[in-house]
Amino acid sequence: VSGPLPPAAVSRLPRYLRFLEGVAPSVSVVSSEEIAEGSGVSAVQVRKDLSHLGAAGTRGVGYDATSLAKRIGKALGLEDRLGVAIVGAGNLGSALANYQGFEARGFRMVAVYDVDAKRIGPLPNGLDVRHIDRLAPDATGGQISIGIIATPSEAAQFVASLMVEAGIRSILNFAPTELRVPAGVAVRRVDLATELQILSYHLAAG
Amino acid sequence: VSGPLPPAAVSRLPRYLRFLEGVAPSVSVVSSEEIAEGSGVSAVQVRKDLSHLGAAGTRGVGYDATSLAKRIGKALGLEDRLGVAIVGAGNLGSALANYQGFEARGFRMVAVYDVDAKRIGPLPNGLDVRHIDRLAPDATGGQISIGIIATPSEAAQFVASLMVEAGIRSILNFAPTELRVPAGVAVRRVDLATELQILSYHLAAG
After folding, report:
1. Residue B146 vs residue B23, higher pLDDT
2. What pairing do the DSSP bridges indicate for beta strands B29-30 and B63-64?
3. Are the beta carbons of B203 and A82 separated by less than 8 Å?
4. Mean pLDDT of chain A
5. B113: part of which helix (H) or strand (E)?
6. What is this model's ipTM?
7. How far is B177 from B183, CA to CA, in rounded Å?
8. Nearest to B102, CA basis, from A199, A140, A81
9. pLDDT tens digits along A107-163
10. Which of A37, A199, A202, A203 to mutate to probe the B interface, most B CBs <10 Å?
11. Tens digits of per-residue pLDDT, A53-65?
12. CB contact under 8 A, B205 and A4
């Protein structure tokens, strides 16, 4: 029931949650088959992952959708509404700042940071672009839990080190470069070319 | 040796390739342990995935890096330099159009498409923004294999249907919405909030 979840299970939880939030509140009970169908995972896998969380469905009936969503959200730490900072106010950073999904799905956007004085100021959606020197003071007291790197490759390692110094322990990296960070800092890389290569495989094998 | 690869194995191949391209041409032979280390996968898994591709390392020595990279690239269909179109010339589409990784990693960027006449014209990097009406004619003869949706959510399904009508069989969707497409069309969704939720789990689990 407890202990850390296997990484692959962790990566499936957001998909279950997305499905549950999509059907609630109009649906009160969901079966593992419905969750499986809605999230592209096998029903056996769904039951196994959920039992890791200590969520037991009622045999022949299913899971209570609302309480299951709450349990997954809690396991993912979403109740804390962690603070997120974006570094890089170019096209990508601006697109990410505009992305409504972050607030809607459990996060608190703090600000966007950039070195370029011309970019400092409020964005159309109200979020501030601040000078990068503000990152460390803004992060004190755990106000920023996750840093998103949306800079050119050349700046990514510098920004990652700034984030780590500021006490940020989780980094989402959009720059196509490997980051060196101390143990205890989690980095996820969103590699867009990888996504295209996976699609390409299906065309080639098709 | 052959037959379709399991989906999880397919998703690991781009990581192996990225590692191999990073070490070549200065390194000629790599062990499965080195590939594992460089791509965050276990060595057993690496050997299993590569044997699926029919790539056998030399016992106690390893794999020839260049020929292994070529074999993976071939399996992924990268030799064909598939054509990629982006629909949506806002911040996200512009960021994607500027992303150098696509051309460098085996793709041919065709153009960006938008409905907004004010956005039509060349981007700073030379890629064209064209009216969405040009998508279908540009796609004839298989000139566009992969479509990237970088529009607001409300437009995503409409764009996906246009892509399918134009003969595009692989779609990378950045809009936070589920797409309905006919069988035989592959969709991958890049869900940015999911990435944050996975990082959040690691913070919550401490």
Report:
1. B146
2. antiparallel
3. yes
4. 91
5. strand B108-114
6. 0.87
7. 18
8. A199
9. 999 999 999 999 999 998 889 999 999 999 999 999 999 999 999 989 999 999 999
10. A199
11. 988 778 888 999 9
12. yes
Comparing CA positions, the residue from B75, B73, B40, B44 lying closest to residue B57 is: B44
Longest CA–CA span in chain B (Å) reads 61
The answer to whether A87 and B92 have CB atoms below 8 angstroms apart is no
Task: For residue B76, give how far its alpha carbon lies from the nearest alpha carbon of chain A (Å).
Answer: 4
* Residue at token pair 């109200």: A126
Contact list, A100 vs chain B (CB under 8 Å): 176
Pick from B17, B169, B200: which is nearest to A76 by CB? B200
Neighbouring residues of B145: CB distance < 8 A, sequence distance ≥ 6 = A200, A203, B80, B82, B83, B84, B168, B169, B170
Measuring CA to CA, which residue among A81, A85, A106, A80 is closest to residue A96?
A85
Q: Which amino acid is at A89?
A: A
- Over residues B19-49, the pLDDT tens digits come to 998 887 788 899 999 999 888 788 999 999 9
Give residue for tokens 């205890």. Answer: A184
